[in-house]
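Students often ask what a holo structure prediction actually looks like on paper. The answer is less mysterious than it sounds. You provide the chain, you provide the ligand, and the output is a string of discrete structure tokens encoding the 3D arrangement of the protein together with iron/sulfur cluster.
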Amino acid sequence: MQQFFSHSIESFTDWVTDHGQPSYRAGQVYEWMFAKKVFDFSQMTNLPENFRKLLIENFTLPAWKIEKQVSTDGTQKFHFELEDGKSIEAVWIPEKNRQTLCVSSQVGCALKCQFCVTGLQGFARNLTQEEILEQIRHVMFVENLPLTNLVFMGMGEPLLNFENLCSAIDLLKEPKAFGFGHRKISVSTAGTVPKILPFIDRTNVSLAVSLTGSTDETRNHWMPINQKYNLSILKETLMQVPQTKWKKIMFEVVMIHQKTDTEEQAKNLVKFLRGMKAKVNLIPYNENEHFPQLKAPKREDLMKYRDILMKAGYYVSIRKNRGQDIMGACGQLSSHLNQAKMSS
Ligand code: SF4
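The corresponding structure tokens follow.
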């Protein structure tokens, strides 16, 4: 038995022709799934009966145990128990003009950022292509939730799961399958430098870079990956990104009270950004029991930090905290079910 979404369209088409069917049958299967929302092969009534039988005997979709929490602000967090018993989470965030799913790429994470609950649990394994895609398929076609944007900002460092991430993105962009425009998909990296240029070469989706500290000293502490690839190595790599691929680089900064939200950090960020076409997204730290010593930034500090960047000519956005009450906000995802009430 094979997982249906472990195939690309090309490899599934090859499978179809290898089994004596015309290649257009592959397109018919995708049409049932993505145009008619039918994933049960037995109901694909314009396929010959023997071919339907062959599909049933050979292909399956992940059978996950799924639990869901709904925040008072409408955000929904999905806790997926995978077939090997490991768990991941994805978060659906509805806004006025867009609905975004924050997708996981790994079970846990090896990078140990010092403000992140996922980092605390350590790394278990990479997600497969079909496990990445199943999070999205579940939300779109089982929950029937509208979805306009995807951000790979859930559990894990996406660029450390390079091949599965890229092949999943191929199907996400494929008009006959998920059909997301490349501008609607964004991948956030903690700074896995050797994979940045190959990723930009391989896909044309947006890449965001999580910085948080704007000096090596600060970033070495909060994001230990900086000890391996420091800020100057990171900048040198980003400066090589062709302008045609990336008009402006998005940098994310987790704002932690009196740690990363200071005036000095803002001024150092301006120095770091010099020479790059950049925009900055400030993410106010989401307080939680795992890091009781870390506090959310005060509004006046957030504004001061933002103004320093804006005066230097950079576009700055401030992330709204969503799903905090269900531990669904940025940096709060974990494989462990939390205390809050879950519903199936
Ligand atoms: S912030 Fe991202 S890269 Fe860092 S530990 Fe958490 S999941 Fe990993």
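The chain is about 30% helix and 20% strand.
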